[in-house]
């Protein structure tokens, strides 16, 4: 069912987007592929805006989202005849060995990503907020305050599309919807290159991008990184078309995609000054017209993020929450503060292998050979292709200068902010094009001394590098094993138990805890999407609330009253990080907690290192057992 809905959503995006590009802006496209990718990308933006409107007026539900889907599908019925005439020429194994090899590799990568998207969501950020926040909005029927999840205060363009998918289907559909935007990026990269270079090399660009292990990992996981890259690249593509074709509609598309990129990921803010510079350099001779275009662009992009700033201001008093708390405050409206904000920023700054000029120059070596998943060393692998193709950049001509400048600015911005490999998806979308373009121009240059045998040897090396990247991805895919679930040989629970160590205790807690009770999660990774019952958790610093209660309320009676006021009836924690070798609590805090659990809580579940306790809060505080809790650690420790 989700696969069918995925096709309907794809058709809906194309339908409404084509209506706008054809009937309102009268854009001329050079090919069916270009019409498809721009119309579909615009359709995704329109869909997100409609769902956002429903969310803000409190009318999000399965029925209203079905109405939206029907409206989107019917909006483009008049364009059906045109769609029948569309031709997509790059299909199914031409005679060229290079194109055949690349198509096979790209086809394998697409199939692997689709199979993983059809499996239950298990990626951490997906469960913490990319799907957890839309799920909470859907359950509430609209926008609500989620003060304990600071990520809910980010702008939510892609999350609105995930909300739309969750209203129509399951987490599979949400992952497929995110993957659709990634596929649009791949088509856009291919189509852009075909306008600049030959069809022989065009498929190398999307294959090179998707085969990057760090990018593939988040392509199917309902993340937003590759989606932000897609909108940034589409904005650049639209700007180039506006500059060359002189149609105002392309300027509007650039504005829409730049604003959407900002509403997808805040790190895309660097696009705004770059785009304003592009508007100024577009070629207008009238200063008045230039300023007018810049004003329209700035206003248009801000329209996509202003609703979210307004939401933040309403709930916290800080429109830019959870950032700039030093200037705007907001601590009273969310479970966050300046201290944790600074510590969080310092943590993100610790990714990579240095921030000096020499470290920047060494990035090709460090990223290629030292990048590791789940590590502060870039937190991901990029493969060897980019390093192999680095010399090809010297073959670029002056016509590529706007893209080269764009890439360098994005790269420097990434280097100075947080050096996580998956955040490279935006600059590397441009690098993939530049690398292949430089290679082709080196081969075709009249001064080139590369003979046919040498050229074929180099291309064979590139294909082998692609195969190696694909092997790394296939190895990870084999470890996940999505096929038993897809072919219904394995149910959802066993699959998630293989992927998420804490899933069994989440599943049990959902059955044990009542609707009017609330669980305090401590070092459970805040996988809110898995929780069907009320819960309270801390973003990033997962023991903050627990430590605050212990430090401020030393006496049993005060702790009981504090828990009652917060509505907390249970605590679910990872013993390793509470009482074990990796404990984030001081010895005194551990002593208070273990005494309190022994006297005023009942252990009801233990699974591996995870403990679930029910607090017994309705005791007579005059009872000797409720005497002040000392710091002598004399109480019994929870059994392991």
How would you describe the overall organization of this protein?
There is one protein chain. The protein has 640 residues and is mainly alpha-helical. It has 2 domains: 2-83 and 96-316 and 350-478, no CATH class; 500-626, Rossmann fold (3-Layer(aba) Sandwich). Helices cover 61% and strands 4% of the residues. A 5-stranded mixed β-sheet has the order 2-1-3-5-4. Helix 7 packs across helix 8. The longest helix is centred in the C-terminal third of the chain and has 29 residues, at 452-480. Residues 626-640 have low confidence and may be disordered.
| Spatial strand arrangement across the major sheet | 2-1-3-5-4
Helix % is 55-70%
- Number of helical stretches of at least 4 residues: 32
- Give the class from helix and strand content and strand pairing: mainly alpha
How are the SSEs placed, and which strands pair?
Layout: H1 2-24, H2 32-56, H3 62-74, H4 80-84, H5 97-117, H6 124-130, H7 132-140, H8 157-168, H9 171-196, H10 199-202, H11 204-210, H12 213-219, H13 225-245, H14 248-264, H15 271-280, H16 287-303, H17 306-316, H18 325-328, H19 338-349, H20 357-361, H21 363-370, H22 385-388, H23 401-416, H24 425-444, H25 452-480, H26 483-486, H27 492-499, H28 503-512, E1 519-522, E2 535-536, H29 544-552, H30 556-566, E3 570-574, H31 575-578, H32 587-600, E4 601-607, E5 610-615
Parallel strand pairs: 1-2, 1-3
Antiparallel strand pairs: 3-5, 4-5
